[in-house]
């Protein structure tokens, strides 16, 4: 269990220590959350392995328990989910407001129980992040949906019907939510302009083990033939490509002294092409272990975030920390979220030279960063601050660090094992 403490929690990072050793990548947050929500689709037991111990995972656990799922920790990282009786068809404000992915209970609840009341979701404030595509898709499948007093009310008394849904823009949780709704709908659902992220594919793989009929996952057209019921299954969650990318950046900054184990290189192919342009190669040193090899002088680059298989927005902040010490002018364009540069003023406190110009950040590499008090403004921004703090001269105190615990399992112990000086406190 993860403890939430009173007051403003911070992490203090002592920069300039040589990091080396091996770090193991955990299960993916963004796969674990939809897979946990999918357990609402059956009355049989589902067992999930490789669940990361993250705040978001425990928020999803409480939400599912509130709805009526009995969740047992069989061993570390292995949980069984058994839906015995419906306790509530409401996902209340308290857990939902903490986590964007709570919206993922909507599709399964409407599909299986024909009604749901779900608070409008919260999560990282990196943009307005509406859920209109989820709601319009459910309406097209025959649900009546209204949003009132901060809650989404959806009902489909005669069940959901398969149809063709074209998302106006690619949406990861939207694709997952509607895929889960469609597996129990009557007839065929075609999802066009679907998200292709590995986490969407992981969800489809588990749903197929449960008896769902899905084709085309991982492409932008997914076809789902609804079935009457789903059975139980056991599934192992894929490694977290964003945590892996975060440690790849550290491996590069510490001259290849950090070996990253359980590294899902196949999900990071595009990221690797960007790294190659900077002068960094991820080299395989074991079955699933990789290490960064870098040229003496790293080169500035232009990066644009884009849906999978391209450069993930969830690695943008961490790469900005790296580029802030790469000599020359780099540019990062954020195409997915309109407010995902909140780490820029914080990096500037550490001495980075970065200007924002609309959707683009222009980074002029400096020779070194220097420690300062900063704020973790969102999940990946927190990781960017930790990276910057580790390479800065002196001490960096990062406030509002709870964001980090939403997405990085045991980050303190993983970093300490590499020789970093990190400690937590409360002010
Ligand atoms: C739990 C989870 O998996 N979170 C990930 C997921 O978030 P999430 O699924 O919330 O992000 P989306 O893919 O839905 O968002 C993509 C874009 O579509 C817009 N949009 C989305 C839905 C909608 O109904 N209307 C709408 O306008 C969003 O505001 C955003 O601009 O994908 C993001 C993009 O890779 C990642 O940063 C998040 O880490
Ligand atoms: C933005 C993220 O998470 P969420 O969608 O859960 O807010 C993230 O994982 O970087």
Overall mean pLDDT? 96
Q: Uncertain segments of ≥5 residues (pLDDT<50)?
A: none
Task: Catalogue the ligands.
Answer: uridine-diphosphate-N-acetylglucosamine, phosphoenolpyruvate
Q: What is the beta-strand fraction?
A: 25-35%
Outline type: globular
User: Total number of helical segments?
Assistant: 14
* Terminal-residue CA separation: 22 Å
> How are the strands of the largest sheet arranged?
22-23-1-24
Kindly name the structural category.
alpha/beta
Radius of gyration: 21 Å
Overview of this protein structure:
This protein has helices spanning 29-38, 55-67, 93-98, 106-113, 132-140, 172-182, 198-209, 241-253, 269-278, 316-323, 343-349, 379-391, 402-407, 411-417, and strands at residues 9-14, 21-24, 46-49, 69-75, 78-83, 90-91, 115-119, 144-148, 151-155, 164-166, 188-192, 213-215, 221-225, 233-236, 258-261, 280-284, 290-294, 302-304, 329-333, 353-357, 360-364, 373-375, 395-399, 421-426. It has 14 helices and 24 strands. Helix 1 (29-38) runs parallel beside helix 7 and helix 8 runs parallel beside helix 12. With 427 residues, it is an alpha/beta fold. Helix content is 31%, strand content 26%. Strands 22-23-1-24 form a 4-stranded mixed sheet, with helices on one face. The protein starts with 8 loop residues before the first strand and ends with a strand. Residues 30, 33, 100-101, 127, 129-134, 169, 171-174, 313-314, 336-337 line the site of uridine-diphosphate-N-acetylglucosamine.
